[in-house]
Design brief:
The protein is mainly alpha-helical. It has twelve helices and no strands.
Length: 200
């Protein structure tokens, strides 16, 4: 194992590491992270095998992609496209943790996925974007066939503070009579939007 891999393992598997430390490792580190995301290499810590550790590892890889994208979004996007990653793979790579309008079309594609988990993840990342197109996509997700996706979209719209979402959220609350939890999430989102509009 190379010293670069050892350093990457420590960073990626440590919660709350300084992303500048990772970016300072340069292009070789970026390439190693991509290989790990492509499942061609592993940067996990040997001996860790629980599901919780697996989720933390994936989160660490996504945070690493976000760190590189924050420094050079165009370069990271170009590399992912050159490696023939699908739009869904790009959307869920961690790239969307960085607020950047170039990410929104990839997330819109992921939102059209047949897989509820993919749509739910796309909604979460769209909430980060705070882009007009992202808000429109989130409003559309309020009608998703998955209640998890609808709830996540309501939460994200509440965080967006965009008043365009109030009427669709009211409609979601009204048609969610059989799902009090979902109706409450919609009402909470409306409350957040109204509070934000008063403080502007």
């Amino acid at each position: 194992m190379s010293s670069l891999d050892e350093r990457l393992r420590v960073l990626i598997n440590t919660e709350g590491y300084d992303p500048r430390e990772l970016v300072a490792l340069g292009r070789p580190a970026f390439e190693r992270v991509l290989l790990a995301l492509e499942r061609k290499e592993s940067l996990s810590i040997p001996g860790r095998s629980s599901e919780l550790d697996g989720r933390a590892y994936e989160d660490g890889l996504q945070a690493a992609i976000a760190a590189f994208a924050a420094e050079d979004m165009a370069g990271v996007l170009a590399e992912l496209v050159a490696r023939k990653w699908t739009d869904e793979q790009i959307a869920l790579s961690g790239l969307a943790r960085v607020k950047d309008a170039r990410v929104v079309p990839f997330l819109e594609t992921a939102l059209a996925s047949k897989v509820p988990y993919t749509r739910r993840s796309a909604v979460g990342f769209l909430g980060v974007q705070r882009d007009r197109r992202a808000v429109a996509a989130l409003i559309g997700a309020l009608s998703d066939r998955s209640s998890d996706v609808r709830g996540a979209a309501a939460d994200a719209l509440g965080e967006s503070g965009d008043a365009r979402a109030i009427a669709p959220l009211e409609a979601l609350a009204a048609r969610s009579a059989r799902s009090p939890f979902l109706a409450e999430r919609a009402r909470e989102a409306i409350g957040k939007i109204r509070r934000r509009s008063r403080t502007r």
